[in-house]
Each structure stands twice: as structure tokens, then as C-alpha cells.
């Protein structure tokens, strides 16, 4: 019977997500990933080169899932308010995604590079915002890349530092609906073409 390479790759990626999210690329163990996947660990080296290559593949795969779940199509006006709310919901439902990004940011060397596929997901969204700005549908006061970055940061920060969130918000730290409402209200103010008077 022929070896199902794509299925094996998928099993390894899925097993690696939680291991990397829990322990980071330095603390993750190849043997544990292989055991979770039910695959010989030599397949990791065969398909991904090394543990760092597997980590890069996991990041690329997880970002592709996020991009597919929450697109900003260029052929329609991007609703940054809805985008922010969807990002917030995605991070609540998939807490491993931000943990993977934090682990990447903590790496001392730049061994994980934002390759063209990863960067392309963001470039498409920046282009969508830029086009809406050209049409006058989104504020042009903020460059599109800064606008996208600000929305992403606002949507993620609730989860990035839960202790600070709790210290600042008090009881509201346990109220995701209040957090979401505050987020989309802020983004609505940011994206408006004309300020309130």
C-alpha cells in the first residue's frame, strides 16, 4: 500500500500545534509530536527538515486557517469593525494561535522567517484596506498597514496579557461580551472616514 504523504504531514502538523503552543519550539519534543501523531519521528525530518522547519510549517498552516476564516476580500469594502469582532472570537476559540506567535517572538534568533505565503495573507488584507481608502470608504488618515496592525493588536491584546487585563478591567475581565463591544466600538471610531463632531 502506498504511503499517504499528505495525511502524514497533516497528522504531524496537527500534533505539533499543541506541543509547540504548550512548550514553544525549544521545549517541544519531536518524539512527543510523533507519538501524538502516531507517526515515526523520522517523518518529521523527512517532511520538514528539522524541528524548526516543523514549527515554521505549523505557523504557516495556522495563519492560513485564520486567513480563510476571516478574509478581507479586495472586491468589497472591508468592514474592519466586523473583522475585529471576528478576530476576537477566533482568538477566544483558538487560544493556541496567539501562543504560537508569542513563542515565535521569544526566539532569540530569526530562524523562523515570515515566508512569502505567511506575509501574503497580510499583504492581501493591506491591499484590500488600501483599495477601500482610495474609494474613500475607510479613513485615509492612517496608512493601511498601520490600520490593519492596529485592529489585529486591539483584537489580540485581551488574550496576550490576561493578568494586566484583569488588573485593569476588574470584573469586566470575565465578561467577553463587554470586551467585544468595547473592541468593535474602538475599531469603528478608528475606521470612520469622517470623525464625529
TrEMBL record:
Pfam families in the cross-refs: TetR_C_21, TetR_N
GO MF annotation terms: DNA binding
SUPFAM superfamilies: Homeodomain-like, Tetracyclin repressor-like, C-terminal domain
Highest rank taxon of the organism: Bacteria
Keywords, alphabetical: DNA-binding
Gene Ontology BP annotations: regulation of DNA-templated transcription
InterPro entries attached to this UniProt entry: Homeodomain-like_sf, HTH-type_TetR-like_transc_reg, HTH_TetR, Sco4008_C, Tet_transcr_reg_TetR-rel_C_sf
HTH tetR-type domain residues: 6-66
Coiled coil: none
Residue ranges the UniProt entry marks as DNA-binding: 29-48
PANTHER family named among the record's database cross-references: HTH-TYPE TRANSCRIPTIONAL REPRESSOR SCO4008, TRANSCRIPTIONAL REPRESSOR
Protein name in the entry: AcrR family transcriptional regulator
Organism: Nonomuraea soli
Amino acid at each position: 500500500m502506498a504511503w499517504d504523504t499528505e495525511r502524514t504531514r497533516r497528522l504531524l502538523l496537527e500534533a505539533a500545534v499543541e506541543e509547540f503552543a504548550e512548550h514553544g519550539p525549544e521545549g517541544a519534543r519531536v518524539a512527543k509530536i510523533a507519538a501524538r501523531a502516531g507517526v515515526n519521528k523520522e517523518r518529521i525530518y523527512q517532511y520538514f527538515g528539522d524541528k524548526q522547519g516543523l514549527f515554521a510549517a505549523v505557523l504557516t498552516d495556522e495563519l492560513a486557517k485564520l486567513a480563510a476564516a476571516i478574509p478581507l476580500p479586495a472586491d468589497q469594502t472591508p468592514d474592519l469593525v466586523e473583522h475585529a469582532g471576528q478576530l476576537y472570537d477566533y482568538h477566544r476559540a483558538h487560544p493556541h494561535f496567539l501562543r504560537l506567535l508569542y513563542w515565535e517572538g521569544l526566539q532569540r534568533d530569526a530562524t523562523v522567517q515570515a515566508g512569502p505565503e505567511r506575509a501574503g495573507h497580510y499583504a492581501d488584507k493591506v491591499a484590500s484596506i488600501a483599495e477601500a481608502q482610495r474609494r474613500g470608504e475607510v479613513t485615509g488618515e492612517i496608512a493601511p498597514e498601520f490600520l490593519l496592525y492596529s485592529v489585529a493588536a486591539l483584537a489580540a491584546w485581551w488574550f496576550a496579557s490576561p493578568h494586566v487585563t484583569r488588573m485593569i478591567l476588574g470584573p469586566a475581565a470575565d465578561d467577553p461580551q463587554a470586551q467585544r463591544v468595547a473592541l468593535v466600538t474602538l475599531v469603528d471610531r478608528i475606521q470612520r472616514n469622517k470623525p464625529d463632531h
